[in-house]
């Protein structure tokens, strides 16, 4: 599932491609991906423009010139492609927005969605999300930690606790901080809290710099998207040697979520 770095990579790249470009039409092949009638969706978009793209947690918010907002959540398996009809991958597209000869294709939205809302509705929808990890200083982070009593893995992926972190980066952050993801949050010392905070800041910024871990390119010739994937230390590296100590990386499940860590150098 795309997390904060993947959605931020999409935001940055799409902002250079589609802002201010007239929307010439749209196509919907799966009405359940929308929250309004497909014909109404197409009518509201045609002739409109995207004036700004914002990321909030794992959502992208496409702010329209009319003041309304498209809210995207890719969920599991969703991704985006931008290009001409000839460049489009041979995959089922649930929703497509047309910008002349170029199309923004939303692929794999079987669980995800692209909803049309007023700005007021968007505020209500997103108000339950926790703070953005990269917007916190150490004092604020420690204050947020006090609200959690469970283990670190489950806490980090809780979107009401911190927004934008999922399975991949929760494991990567814990590895970077040398802390087991199975540890209970109240058991962390002040020094471990600081190490966790520093790891979170450094790891998420590095992942954004290298385009996240999703490998499907956004457009033909895209050399950024997915470049963090080979840099993952432990995520999806079960039984491979730990890059720090050489012991095999453990693959287990925590609350039905896959979890990867090194039992030797994470404590």
UniProtKB/TrEMBL annotation:
<feature type="transmembrane region" description="Helical">
    <location>
        <begin position="60"/>
        <end position="82"/>
    </location>
</feature>
<keyword id="KW-0812">Transmembrane</keyword>
<dbReference type="InterPro" id="IPR012319">
    <property type="entry name" value="FPG_cat"/>
</dbReference>
<dbReference type="InterPro" id="IPR015886">
    <property type="entry name" value="H2TH_FPG"/>
</dbReference>
<protein>
    <recommendedName>
        <fullName>Formamidopyrimidine-DNA glycosylase</fullName>
        <ecNumber>3.2.2.23</ecNumber>
        <ecNumber>4.2.99.18</ecNumber>
    </recommendedName>
</protein>
<keyword id="KW-0227">DNA damage</keyword>
<dbReference type="Pfam" id="PF01149">
    <property type="entry name" value="Fapy_DNA_glyco"/>
</dbReference>
<keyword id="KW-0326">Glycosidase</keyword>
<comment type="similarity">
    <text>Belongs to the FPG family.</text>
</comment>
<dbReference type="GO" id="GO:0140078">
    <property type="term" value="F:class I DNA-(apurinic or apyrimidinic site) endonuclease activity"/>
</dbReference>
<dbReference type="Pfam" id="PF06831">
    <property type="entry name" value="H2TH"/>
</dbReference>
<keyword id="KW-0863">Zinc-finger</keyword>
<keyword id="KW-0234">DNA repair</keyword>
<dbReference type="Pfam" id="PF06827">
    <property type="entry name" value="zf-FPG_IleRS"/>
</dbReference>
<keyword id="KW-1133">Transmembrane helix</keyword>
<dbReference type="InterPro" id="IPR035937">
    <property type="entry name" value="FPG_N"/>
</dbReference>
<keyword id="KW-0378">Hydrolase</keyword>
<dbReference type="GO" id="GO:0008534">
    <property type="term" value="F:oxidized purine nucleobase lesion DNA N-glycosylase activity"/>
</dbReference>
<keyword id="KW-0862">Zinc</keyword>
<feature type="domain" description="Formamidopyrimidine-DNA glycosylase catalytic">
    <location>
        <begin position="2"/>
        <end position="100"/>
    </location>
</feature>
<keyword id="KW-0511">Multifunctional enzyme</keyword>
<dbReference type="InterPro" id="IPR010663">
    <property type="entry name" value="Znf_FPG/IleRS"/>
</dbReference>
<feature type="domain" description="FPG-type">
    <location>
        <begin position="233"/>
        <end position="267"/>
    </location>
</feature>
<dbReference type="InterPro" id="IPR010979">
    <property type="entry name" value="Ribosomal_uS13-like_H2TH"/>
</dbReference>
<keyword id="KW-0479">Metal-binding</keyword>
<keyword id="KW-0456">Lyase</keyword>
<dbReference type="InterPro" id="IPR000214">
    <property type="entry name" value="Znf_DNA_glyclase/AP_lyase"/>
</dbReference>
<keyword id="KW-0472">Membrane</keyword>
<keyword id="KW-0238">DNA-binding</keyword>
């Amino acid at each position: 599932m795309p997390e904060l770095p993947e959605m931020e990579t999409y935001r940055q790249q799409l902002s250079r491609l589609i802002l201010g470009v007239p929307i010439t039409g749209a196509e919907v092949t799966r009405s359940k991906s929308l929250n309004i009638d497909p014909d109404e969706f197409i009518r509201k978009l045609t002739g409109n423009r995207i004036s700004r793209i914002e990321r909030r947690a794992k959502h992208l918010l496409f702010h329209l010139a009319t003041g309304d907002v498209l809210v995207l959540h890719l969920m599991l398996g969703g991704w985006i492609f931008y290009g001409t009809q000839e460049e489009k991958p041979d995959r089922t597209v649930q929703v497509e927005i047309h910008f002349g000869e170029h199309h923004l294709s939303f692929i794999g939205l079987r669980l995800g969605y692209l909803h049309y809302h007023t700005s007021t509705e968007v505020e209500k929808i997103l108000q339950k999300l926790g703070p953005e990890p990269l917007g916190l200083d150490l004092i604020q982070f420690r204050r947020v930690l006090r609200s959690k009593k469970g283990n670190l893995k489950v806490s980090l992926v809780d979107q009401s606790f911190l927004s934008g972190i999922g399975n991949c980066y929760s494991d990567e952050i814990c590895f970077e901080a040398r802390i087991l993801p199975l540890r209970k949050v109240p058991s962390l010392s002040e020094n471990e809290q600081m190490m966790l905070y520093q790891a979170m800041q450094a790891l998420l910024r590095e992942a954004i710099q290298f385009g996240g871990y999703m490998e499907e390119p956004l457009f033909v010739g895209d050399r950024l998207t997915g470049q963090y994937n080979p840099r993952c230390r432990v995520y999806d590296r079960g039984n491979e040697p730990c890059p720090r100590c050489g012991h095999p990386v453990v693959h287990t499940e925590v609350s039905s979520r896959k979890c990867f860590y090194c039992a030797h150098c994470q404590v």
